[in-house]
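yo, Metal ABC transporter permease is done. seq:
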Amino acid sequence: MNDLWIILTAALVAAACSLVGCFLVLRKMAMIGDAISHSVLPGIVIAFLISGSRGSIFMLIGAAVIGLITVFLIQLFQQSGVQSDASIGVVFTAMFSIGVVLVSLYTRQIDLDLDCVLYGEIAYVPWNIIEVGGVSIGPKAIWAVGFALLLSSVVIGLFYKQFKLCSFDPALAAAVGIPVLLFHYLLMGLVSITTVASFESVGAILVVGMLIVPAATAYLLTEKLSVMLVLSVAVGVVSSIAGYFVAYLLDASIAGCMISVAGVMFVFAFLMSPTNGLIIRKIRQKRGLSGVIPESV
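structure:
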């Protein structure tokens, strides 16, 4: 049963991250999830100092708030002329450093397990359960990530056309009256919620990997957004299931094996994609050249 909980949690994380990851890849903001996963440290510490509790719910709330602030600061710097990658790097390193300073100043004598909070291990998911009336209703991660997936699915489903147009042509979206900035922050809010809901239980490596790799793989396989969303989720879920069994056989890191499998799938798509595959393009070029009849001298 524990194996089933681990696989189910990984599959939910993959689906939730892949869904919003498609829009990040299209907007060339793939590393925003990594920025959020590092910058939430001050939110965790502040939540602990205010509540006096190491309960996960307080730390998750603090992390979510700081995650949204991180997104706002990144967007603010970009609008002020700072390059996208520089904005992300500056904000997440600065926020993470503030968190480190807060830890060193206020939590020296307290067992605040930040490694667990920031880089949780998916193998421990089955033991962190929720009980209602003394009855277990499953691991906390299942409910947290399931809620994030449901929220993202509903919001993207309701505003699919707006998200699509804002991702491909924000100028046209603004011209037809769509509030581009509002949908940008709405998407970043979904990314923040998904990231925060996932990384405590499954680890930052798995979350960041699932935000980027399945979406990038799907991007190589299709030129239609709706198909890209489906393929991205499928790649994430398949890599989660296959990666777990690879980890079992090798007795290795579960999250590492899942992202490694996703990476292998990306390489295969990069080489063999019908539209963008490197090998397929070379074959087409070779056939095209072989079909050209040289002019007689």
